[in-house]
């Protein structure tokens, strides 16, 4: 009793006493009921959702078989769309190897996996990419995508319209009417190029994504946001002889009228005909200027339309002191567009000085590795300094 009375007589110790009493009571109760060693209860775990990888692999095998057999399945599912696209384009040799899950499985059982895929389009080498493939809870394919830096094949990214002739193949993510328009642009481009260049076995492939070019080319976001079209190897290499395709940016070319769009496609067709992206010898101004020379050869548009940007710069700052170099053709350049116009006018100066055949000869010689100075003197009788002087004078006179 003293102890209790002592505790109660000191308010500060009341809480401690109560806790002590409760602990003793608990101990006594445990002893009286004969309990053994105390074990905390195990919390119940939420059920684990697992990916049905067997069904996913089966779906990939069905896709491969469908493409191999030329199937044309009904429906709007990603696998059905891809199979129909493959048949329309002529995709062959498809393989799809399931690698591993990518990320967590959702509560509904859907998931994404990394899949090594290989395929071959007519006239192209076998291409391989590790792509992301989405699956639903039943293992059915829901879509295809690619990590940044990986090229996303157009035939796997949604429905396409396909148009082909003996010399062109056009694959478009757009309406049938728009596909017809791009097919006409491609056919006209081949004809225009062949009036200037000896393109004996023309093959022009246009790929037109629904929006932008960055995903299709495996580029950083916004790299090609201002570019109307790009000619590049199908495998992203710079190896000579690699097949070339032209990727068209609908977000840019869609704002152009028919003559403007034709200039863009013909310009890129020149690059394809001369394997420009894989030739390291020619100066950039000649590569781009020559392509515009062919594309604008029969135009009746005024200089205010075809060279308005560079002439505005000349009026403000005077003519450039040198022909545009590789750095000036950066897609993020402040004056992107003016450089192309300046390069085109350099080729116009050359054609006026020595004729079109001399310009074509210069382009071919430099492509074979002949130094620019020597090739200029062989075709025109003057070198780079004289060309630069004539070009600057032409710019100044045109800007008046």
* Number of domain modules: 3
Residue ranges: pLDDT <50 for 5 or more in a row? Answer: 1-36
Q: What's the architecture of the largest domain in CATH terms?
A: 2-Layer Sandwich
Class computed from helices, strands and strand pairing: alpha+beta
Helix tally equals 15
CATH uppermost class of the largest domain: Alpha Beta
**Mean pLDDT over the full residue set:** 89
What is the alpha-carbon Rg in Å?
34 Å
Q: Strand fraction band? A: 5-15%
Helix-strand string: HHHHEEEEEEHEHEEHHHHHHHHH
**How many beta-strand segments?**
9
Shape: elongated
Largest sheet: 5 strands, mixed
What is the CATH fold-level name of the largest domain? Answer: Zincin-like
Percent helix, as a range, is: 40-55%
Strand order of the largest sheet: 5-6-7-9-8
In whole angstroms, the N-to-C terminal distance is 115 Å
Keywords: Membrane, Transmembrane, Transmembrane helix
Transmembrane segments: 12-32
Protein name: Peptidase MA superfamily protein
Describe what this molecule looks like in 3D.
The protein is an alpha+beta fold and 400 residues long. It has three domains: 53-158, Nuclear Transport Factor 2, Chain: A, CATH 3.10.450; 160-280, Zincin-like, CATH 3.30.2010.30; 282-400, no CATH class. 44% of the residues lie in helices and 14% in strands. It is built from 15 helices and nine strands. It has helices at residues 2-8, 14-32, 53-68, 78-89, 176-194, 214-217, 250-253, 258-273, 284-296, 303-306, 308-317, 338-354, 356-367, 372-380, 384-399; strands spanning 92-101, 111-120, 127-135, 141-145, 161-164, 168-172, 204-208, 229-233, 244-248. The strands form two sheets. It has a five-stranded mixed β-sheet, with helices on both faces. A four-stranded antiparallel β-sheet has the order 1-2-3-4, with helices on one face. α5 packs across α8 (258-273), α12 (338-354) crosses α13 (356-367) and α13 packs antiparallel against α14. The radius of gyration is 34 Å and the shape is elongated. The termini are far apart. Residues 1-36 have low confidence and may be disordered. It comes from Nocardioides albertanoniae.
